[in-house]
Amino acid sequence: MTPKDMFTHLGSIIASLMFVWAMFQQYFPYQLRNYIERYSQRLLGLVYPYIQIRFNEFTGERLMRSEAYSAIENYLSSNTSSQAKRLQADIVKNSESLVLSMDDQEEVADEFEGVKLWWASGKNIIKTPSLSFHPVSDEKRFYRLTFHKRHRDLILRPYLNHVLKEGKAIKVRNRQRKLYTNNGSYWSHVVFEHPATFQTLAMDPVKKKEIIDDLITFSKAEDFYTRVGRAWKRGYLLYGPPGTGKSTMIAAMANLLCYDLYDLELTAVKDNTELRKLLIETSSKSIIVIEDIDCSLDLTGQRKKKKEKVEAEEEKDSKPKVEKEEKDTRGSQVTLSGLLNFIDGLWSACGGERLIVFTTNFVEKLDPALIRKGRMDKHIELSYCRFEAFKGLAKNYLYLESHDLFLQIRKLLEETDITPADVAEHLMPKTISGDATFCLEGLIQALETKKEEARLKAEEERQKIEQSAKEEAKEQDKNHD
Ligand SMILES: Nc1ncnc2c1ncn2[C@@H]1O[C@H](COP(=O)(O)OP(=O)(O)OP(=O)(O)O)[C@@H](O)[C@H]1O
Ligand SMILES: [Mg+2]
């Protein structure tokens, strides 16, 4: 029997004596009763050196579920469920994972900075009289924490803070995340279940690690942001050609940090007031995304005519950007200064822990005010697939670490621009057996075709320049004559 058990027994003996005493107390005069009660409590305090704190599941007049109770529940389910012999099981995250927590009337031990303490779960059943045949019973659950009184300072502040913080973090990890989209000035959401992760994202490993470190540092930097007096937010600008993984990276960011996603379609927002309303409604631990910022907002203050812009792009790049045409810019009066106000303004401090991500295919077209440091803290270029990124894709798609054809592919990737999306398409299994060599040969063929196309295009350009130089010389000769 541990000293704590011994004292607990002693405590229950004294409590029983007090109960017997209470039975008879009505026969004693009030003053004497008070006197005896006070001294019996003191006596109990002398022989029972443990402190107990009770955390009820429901608190307040309106009986709201206590935040502390649910944080403790999460903390105990992950930290002590291996000790408890009787467990309760529950399913979270859309039937994906099973969470175990200790059953009623169980006790588990925990340790903090070398100090041992005990958590017990319990419930009181209160029977309420009812007219129906079955009496209505109300279960009031609670957790009771017991620790030695000499550790009072350690447990009351650092330990309980640790439990609450850890419990809330576990809750965030277990919750089902959401993808919000705005329909005018309202958000609607679906369950966010994108499988992209940083492991599956093909890019230079050094650059990838730098981004992951930056995100994790941000998510743990609440104290830093409070100390330096800044709103706890960070802006990312992702830029690069279509199909280089900008949207995929946003999904990977949300999965890494367990954040919700708010995909803000600026062209559907009527004006700055509506934009403010939408942004105030976003919750903390979220990523607010504005895709194709150059298309959503005209930087001179007027809305761009999307179709014209897309046509101009198609001329430049033979690949049509069909999805961009779907956006409708009619009727929106959101301005650049309106947007900047929301990024910098007071709202951005509400709730905290928010990432703001802009994506664009044309970084050079953006107003410098929009992307200056402090607004967009980190600029990330996602570019064409080089060999390091290809290796990531080959490992992911074909389970290949090396292959005889890698050398040839390496050389071609150095000479030819191809997007990771195109490479990934070639690495998709084309036969039931998923023959890797077949996929790699297909990729080589595509790379060679692209290389030849680029050579012909360059040749055409060169001829055009020569032609116009010749014409210019002719013109000059004519003028001289
Ligand atoms: N770096 C990458 N790693 C792994 N897969 C990628 C990568 N880039 C693109 N892909 C694949 O290509 C598809 C298109 O990529 P994604 O939508 O992320 O491109 P994007 O840069 O957002 O393009 P856009 O500018 O047109 O919006 C994705 O579904 C993904 O499977
Ligand atoms: Mg995209």
From TrEMBL:
SMART domains per record: AAA
Chain intervals for the UniProt region annotation (Disordered): 308-329, 455-481
Biased segments, Basic and acidic residues type: 316-329
Keywords: ATP-binding, Hydrolase, Magnesium, Membrane, Nucleotide-binding, Transmembrane, Transmembrane helix
Catalytic activity: ATP + H2O = ADP + phosphate + H(+)
Family note: Belongs to the AAA ATPase family. BCS1 subfamily.
GO biological process: response to stress
Needed co-factor(s): Mg(2+)
Positions of transmembrane segments: 6-24
Gene Ontology MF terms in the entry: ATP binding; ATP hydrolysis activity
Name this polypeptide is given: AAA+ ATPase domain-containing protein
